[in-house]
Amino acid sequence: MTLNTLLDLGIMIFAGMFMGRMGKHIKLPNVTGYLIAGLLIGPYFFRSFGLNFSILSEDFINSITIISEAALGFIAFSIGDEFKISYFKRVGATPIIIAAMESLIAVVLVDIGLVVAGNSVPFSMVLGAIAAATAPAATIMVVNQYRAKGPVTETLLSVVALDDATALIFFSLSIAIAKSIVNPNNGNLAMAILNPIIQIAGALAIGAVLGFIFMIPLRYFHKKGNRISLI
Questions:
Q1: What is the pLDDT of residue 37?
Q2: Angle 30-35-36 (CA atoms, 0-180°, nearest 5)?
Q3: 8 A C-beta contact, residue 161 and residue 87
Q4: Measuring CA to CA, which residue among 21, 138, 16 is closest to residue 75?
Q5: pLDDT value for 2
Q6: In sequence order, what DSSP letters do the residues of 152-214 get, joined into one string?
Q7: Where is 38: in which H helix or E strand?
Q8: CA nearest 100: which of 41, 157, 51, 163?
């Protein structure tokens, strides 16, 4: 890392901590302050007012994408930890129905709104598919900050995790259908529709196999208080 990169990282961390503290003073979650800090020091805020100036450059933002990807990986892992067979046996298919209907209704309403506004059907379908996605990072941060627990929190985390899967499916379906409308002779529509479903099913299968493998060595460890001992 160069000195400029370390300086930019320091500015980013300081701005996030400062705005997070300011948000807490006005009874807002820390993540609200983080979002405002990112907006203010990002490469586009001052340019929107016609000023050729930014605190953090666009090149720097692009160079630290690995940090956001790693953070999202930890967040996704934390959400995945909420998926327990005992939980779904207790609540049934409620989270699945909520996530599917919430994503589907968002996609349909946005598609209809964009078409009514005069946009083309392919363009409306692509943008409407994006409406199905949610931000798991903000949800996890608010839940952790307030240490929320209970049935609402359990359902929320499950819906957020499932919503990402449904958003991926709807987005891939919308892209495939939009491409077929623009160019009917380009590619196989059936495979384009089945591809995201196959990928998600494969990811679930691989995760289940790896989880089972990782559980085998854990059987030989036993937690006593704050220590983990080998049996």
A1: 92
A2: 100
A3: no
A4: 138
A5: 56
A6: HHHHHHHHHHHHHHHHHHHHHHHHHHHHHHH-TTSS-HHHHHHHHHHHHHHHHHHHHHHHHHH
A7: helix 30-41
A8: 163
Q: And the tokens for 124?
A: 């409306």
Number of other CB atoms surrounding residue 126 within 10 Å: 18
User: Measuring CA to CA, which residue among 78, 63, 82, 46 is closest to residue 4?
Assistant: 63
Which tokens is 45 given?
Answer: 């805020």
pLDDT at 112 (0 to 100):
92
Helix (H, G, I), strand (E, B) or coil at 222: strand
Look at residues 218, 65, 31 and name the one whose alpha carbon lies nearest to residue 138. 31
pLDDT digits (tens, 9 = 90+) for 159-217: 877 777 777 778 877 887 887 788 777 666 677 677 777 877 888 789 889 888 888 87
